Structure formats: structure tokens, C-alpha cells
Amino acid sequence: MFKIVRLCLFAMLGLGLVSVSSADKLRIATEAFYEPFAYKAADGTLVGFDIDITYALCDAMGAECEIIEQDWDGLIPGLLAKKYDAIVASMSITPDRQKVVDFAGPYYKEPTKFFAKKGSGLVDTPEGLKGVKIGILRATTFEKYLEKHFPDAVIKGYPTQDEVYLDLAAGRVDAGMSSGTAAQKGFLDKDAGKDFEFFGGTHWDDAINGTGTGIPVRKEDTELRDRFNAALSAIRGNGTYKKINDKYFNFDIWGMD
Fold first, then answer.
1. What pLDDT shows up at residue 250?
2. What is the helix (H) or strand (E) element at residue 57, kind and residue range?
3. Cis ω for the linkage preceding 36 (within 30 of 0)
4. In this predicted structure, what is the pLDDT of residue 40?
5. What residues form DSSP beta bridges with 108?
6. Gyration radius from the chain CA atoms
7. Which helix or strand (DSSP H or E) is residue 200 part of?
8. In which region does residue 104 sit, left (phi positive, over 0), alpha (psi from -120 to 50) or beta (all else)?
């Protein structure tokens, strides 16, 4: 399992520099196939909005930060098995997930969108997508949303978002659904996605998509949850969040004001 270790030297909430105790080490899991949130640079280094946010939060907490790569399907099971302490992987805060884990945050909120080949003529209504093969990252809110609102669509789940793009480009599915930013940066802006486009509007269902994107922790780790929330307030207040936002987006990903 690929790991990156970074020593975070800033004191919690800007109270000055501190040394990091051996006990104050945080293991944070992510999934590395969701550009621009978390993905691998050419040299294999994990990069992206979620990665930078993780480091900034650990800095604010004065903690040593170890990022662990984990497949999407195994993120929550790995957390419950205590393989790591928290997850920063663009995971939505949903009622179903809140039954098994607690969340810090949210740290951003963004609706989902459909995308397909240019000129496809597809319409984002239940009738318009009846029988249409739609690729999604499996075990996500996208899957549950389609099952509820587009029951006659043919849903095809994939272990990574990149595989959705590959099969869409190859014609094995007719459309995809994901975060609009992920689809734009990870596919539509690339050569492989130049002949594809969004269609329809944005989609959100509070009962499924929840209240935004959060940081899962184990239910018993209330102190860690509160530390993450305090650190999030700190980086929002001192401009660090905005600097990270502006590195990846030309709009405010926060989406909750």
C-alpha cells in the first residue's frame, strides 16, 4: 500500500510552533483515482485538493500526517478495522454512512452531473435515460441516486472513476455521472474526453447526497472529530483553504455559504 509521510509542524489553531509527540500521529486514508481531488502525479506522488487539505488540517492540528492509499470500496471497512484514523476522500456525509461512522466537516459541497458524447441527444429525465447504460463509481451516492431517480437506467459500477471514463470513451457505456468538477478536470478537459460534454442540469437529493463532503472517523473518536472541525475552521479563517481552492478551481468549491 502506497504511503506518504509528511511531518506537520504548525501548532494547533496557530498557537505557535510545537514539536510533534510520537503519540500524535494521524493515519489518513484516501482513494487516488479522483482527479482533481486525489490522484497520482507522473512520479507516483499523491496530489490533489483532498491531499493538500489533509496536509493543511494536520498542520493546523500539529500532528504528523501519514496518507495511505486505499481502494474506494475498502475505505470505511478499513477505518472500522482501525487500519487508519480518518478518511479524506471526497466522501459525502449521508444518513446511511452516519449509521456506521461519524463525520467531521463538511469541507465542500458540489452537485453531481451527467456527461456523454457530444450530440448524444440524451435527456436527464427518467424517461430520457430509460435503458441507457450509465457508468458510475460503485458504492457511492451516484449509484443510490440513480437507483432512486432513474430506476429504468442500466447502472454499471466501477472500482475507480478512471475506469468509468475509459469505458465511456470506448463506447461500453452511454453516459457517466460524477461530481461535475471531477468529470471536467479528470475527463472532459483531457484529450480522451474532448468529444464528450455535460448534459442536463445538476442533481442533488439531501436524503441520498447528504449535507456535503466530510471526513469519516470512528464513532467513538469524538475528540478527533472535534480536532478536525477546529482545524477546518482555522484553515478557513486564515486563508489556507482559499489558497488550496484557488490552486485547483476557478470557483469556490465550499458551496455552503
1. 87
2. helix 49-61
3. yes
4. 95
5. 213
6. 19
7. strand 196-203
8. beta
Quote the strand ranges of 96-168, DSSP E: 102-108, 112-117, 133-137, 154-158
The 10s digit of each residue's pLDDT in 174-211 is: 999 999 999 999 999 999 999 999 999 999 998 898 88
Cell of 224: 478527533
Cα separation, 186 vs 17, in Å, equals 37
Determine if the peptide bond prior to 106 is cis (ω within 30°): yes
pLDDT in the model for residue 15: 34
- For the stretch 14-22, contacts whose Cβ atoms lie closer than 8 Å and that sit 24 or more positions apart, written own/partner, are 14/60, 14/234, 14/238, 18/62, 20/62, 20/63, 20/64
| 131-158 residue pLDDT tens | 999 999 998 999 999 999 999 999 999 9
Sign of CA dihedral 149, 173, 196, 194: positive
Find the DSSP H helices in 65-138.
75-80, 95-98
**Alpha-carbon span 13 to 148, nearest angstrom:** 42
Supply the pTM of this predicted model.
0.78
CA–CA gap between residue 29 and residue 44 (Å, rounded): 16
pLDDT at 257: 61
Q: Which residues of the chain have pLDDT under 50?
A: 1-23
d(CA 252, CA 257): 10
Cell of 146: 440513480
